[in-house]
Amino acid sequence: MSSEPPEPLPPDDPTELDFWGPLSRLRQAMEAEIARLYSERGVRVQPRFTMPLIRLARRGPMTIRQLAESLEVTHSAMSQTVGALRTDGMVTTRPGRDARTREVVLTDRARELVPFLEAEWLATERAAEELDAEIPYPLRQVVRDMEAALARRSFRDRIVRHLDEPGPDAADPPAPPGTSGPGFP
Predict the structure, then answer these.
(1) Which pTM was predicted?
(2) Among 3, 40, 49, 56, which residue has the fewest nearby CB atoms (within 10 Å)?
(3) Contact partners, residue 73, CB within 8 Å, separation at least 6
């Protein structure tokens, strides 16, 4: 007789399984604490805008594409961010080096906030390092270990394996749309 408990049956709704949920909720809670700090200090900017504002302050005007690439986000996401920053009076845009581009430029209001934003960024990094040192298995090590594992076999390949070879309790996966029916094997 085994002393290990049986594996729980999968839920009826597969979205009830959420591997990333706890990490996402942890990050959201930490970001909410930063937003609370901003509010307490009278800083009227969303914490998610801190990185692009600091980047623009440090590197000068950039196109949306350049800013997106420097922060490793999509052009679409950065375009939305710049739109929100423009609405909040943090940036303006001006013609770029050619007629097809526009550069994002900090306003005086944003420049006044940058020293606080940079100080908060550095304090947040120190607090995160402190937190990481308190736990038995540092998050940075988890990330490095996961990157190494993914270098050995990609996440896509892992998903395909589980999709093509489901576990004993799983139903056969449906065929992708347009790949079954008359005319398909």
Answers:
(1) 0.78
(2) 3
(3) 81
Q: Do 89 and 149 belong to one domain?
A: no
Is residue 73 domain-resident?
yes
Are 56 and 106 a contacting pair, CB within 8 Å?
Answer: yes
Tell me the pLDDT tens digit for each residue of 88-107: 999 999 998 887 889 999 99
